[in-house]
Structures are given as C-alpha cells and as structure tokens.
Design a protein that fits this description.
It is built from eight helices and six strands. With 142 residues, the chain is of the alpha/beta class. A six-stranded mixed beta sheet has the order 3-2-1-4-6-5. Helix 3 runs antiparallel to helix 5. The longest helix has 11 residues. The model has no long low-confidence stretch (mean pLDDT 95).
Length: 142
Amino acid sequence: MRIVIDTNIWVSGLLWRGMPWKLLCLAEAGKVELCMAPAMLDELAEVLSYERLQPRLTQLGLTPAELVAYAVDLVSIFEVLEGPRIVVADPDDDVFLHCAAVADAACVVSGDNHLLDLGVYADIPILTIRDFLAKEFPDQAD
C-alpha cells in the first residue's frame, strides 16, 4: 500500500517514539510503501536543520543528513510536476497531494490542518496518523 506522509509526521517519526515512528517501522518491514517527491525531501532536510530540533538530534547522536539519508533509503521517489493550486492557505502543502496523485497512493497521512481540512483529494483520503493506523494496522494504533 502506497502512502504519502507529510513533513511533521516524518519529523515526529524520526525523532520520537510514537505513532509516526510506528509508521516508519511498518515501512521498514515492507508493510507500507512511503512515497516522496524531491521537494518533500528538501523540506524534510530544511526542517531537520531547525535550531529548535538540534538538542534532540544531539541527544540521539544523529545529524539531519543521516536522517535524510535514512528517509531516502526508505521511500520511493516520484517526480511531481507543479500542478494547480489546491491548498490556498498553504501552497507548500500542494506537493504532498500532487505526489499522492502521481504515486496512486492509498492515502495521505498528515498532522497538518490545511491538509486534514480537505478530507480527500482526487479520491485519496487525507487521514491523521491515528485514523490511518486504526483503519489499516489496529494493533499499532495505541
């Protein structure tokens, strides 16, 4: 099952042990296929470089580059052309929806209200991490 996850899900999964981390473990086990566009990788690298995250990275003994390399190894990359504006309030979120459409993803998993408020794009549901795990992997949803 192909899915697209937004940057905040990635960051939470890479830096902490919660439901987003469980989702990354499911991807490692081959139970889901995570899909990304190059622009999404760029955004992940940028966010992981934020000063406020550096204490956590130091605590884990990891660098942003190491985490981005891990992400690259875990995902399938899809070339996404810029398409029509979808998320008027935050056009940077459009890439997640365009990637999901190009990848023929089963859903987008997000914690971003701009995306969640849409509910669906091109017949692709946009779900919270909790809702996704409860639906697809109930044993991981606690």
